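USER:
Working in pairs, take the chain set out below, taking as long as you need, and write a paragraph about the fold.
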Amino acid sequence: ADVSDPGNKLLEMFYFHQVFKNYWIGYAERCDHYVQRYGELSQPRHFEAYIIKFYHGLNTLDMMKKKKTKNYSKSAEVDGIIASMRVAASHAESNFRNKLELLEAEQRGLNNFH
């Protein structure tokens, strides 16, 4: 078995935790890299997928804010993440409502900034 085989739980968890670590220490590009790697490797379960999407949305908004330009492809990506978080909040409100509201507030703040 190769380390990059789909279903490699150890590598999947490594990428999952790297997303959080790099987001919280402020390495936006690295966070984005590990989001992509996690998506390539894993068949994420619903809860994990929504958590990764949440951090990916926050990270993308932060990168857009730092670049001070409106990136329509990234904006559409965030719109998709917010739509997906609405679905998650409709199924598990106590887990995802606050995350959805934070993403929406950050997006509105960014849109008012541009």
In short: The two ends are 49 Å apart (CA to CA).
